[in-house]
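Onboarding guide, step 5: your first structure request.
Type a short instruction followed by the sequence, for example:

Predict the 3D structure of this protein.
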Amino acid sequence: MKREIGFFVVVLAGAALYAWIFWHESLGINALLSAVFILAAMGKLHPGIFKENMARWAAVGLLFSSLMVIVNNSLIAKGLHVVTLALCIGVAQAPLLRFAWFSGLLALHGVIRAPLAMVFELFRGRKNSLKWRTLRNLVLITVIPTFAVLFFFWLYYFSNSAFAALADKVLKSVEYWPIWQWPLGRLFLALLGASIVYAIGRDNPLAEKVENWDENQQEDLERKRKTERMQHNMIFGLVSSVLNAVLQVFWGRGAMVLKQGYRVSFFTLIALNLLLLIVNLTDVATVWWGIVPETPYELSQFVHTGTYLLIFSILVASFFVVVIFWNNLNFFPHNGPLKTAAMIWLAQNILLALSVGARNYHYIAGYGLAYKRIGVLVFLLLTVIGLISLYLKVRDRKSMFYLLLTNTWAWYIVWMLCATLNWDVLITRYNLRYTREHLDLPYLINDLSDKNLYVLYQEQALIPANSYEAQQLDNKRKRFEDRQASTTWLSWNWADEVNRRGVGASGD
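The system replies with structure tokens like these:
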């Protein structure tokens, strides 16, 4: 009993903390305060949880993201903070889970179900915990009567003047009820804080199923018979099964299908390698050492024409290799030539990705950095990592689970690295230094956040007085000052502090 009381005290503390530190505030120091509280709650409600590697990494990620929110206060850092918070909630519910996406799924499920689960537990006790059937029944017995009451209320309101007068009197008094004296947004924050702590401290009905699935996944492939393969099919397995069915129409069943599948895959890869070789040689000649267009329109066409199709072609190529090496072709005797052809295909796709990066580089060199251009480079980096992991899968007979696990953590690490930079300041400084001839001032002023204000004020000589750009910069400064005036120390972050000092000094 004492333990249950302690649990609900922590839940109420979470509600009070969220209602206090996030009400009318932006993310700043409050992100670190909430992170420390969440980790303390995890340690209190699950003693020994930080002995697990996943829990330790999740805790490091949450603290790191909250520090990056304070240092850079970028949208990437804020997004990373939400993701790492979800990871911590999911890890608290299933500490042995290896697949981070499922940790996020558990977190979302736990937080969404928490409000009703708390009410249900308070009135009926923990032994009768909230289940899906109970939740469904609870929704049915509340939603249907609610709609029925609202419908007939509408009918009676417009057909009976006495009832309408009484209803108006009651509804008018609602705004004076004590519960509405506390802002609704603050109530929502309190509910969010309580739900997060509740999700951390209570078992999730999905956790056991997800953990069982995760436990059965192997990073190394094992040869499976037909009945076993049917139990492990995903979209790649489905495509592989369709291809096998097509081959069976022409060559029958058994070993002959596998042999013909090998031949079809090998000759297809040979043909595709020859085709891609021509494409890569063309790119090397025109993109790497060719004459780059100089006018903005020509350079834009040079970069944008085909870039997204080339990226899509790389993804399709990766999908194709996964389908080929989904199951038993990994164990086909003397499959070395097929593996070699697949590895050459992957290497050529890496070269193709580098060519796309070279196109993007020419645009950046001529017209500066922008979020989309940076996004293309980051996506290409992740694509190359994915191709390398696919190479390792083919070489070492790794499973699809290995691919998903490896690339999930690659995305996570790259996101953390991106969160260490103040991109708005980086873009502004680079463009001011290297692209003065083609400087896009409206982009720097209007499209980037106010993190770059102090840099723009350092270069005021570039902005003609009383011009449109000068007016927009002044408006940007006023919005920044208004935002600063509307928050307290809980929203403090270093990026805003640098801006405040730099803009203040420029104003003096």
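Each response can be followed by summary notes, for example: The chain has 22 helices and no strands.
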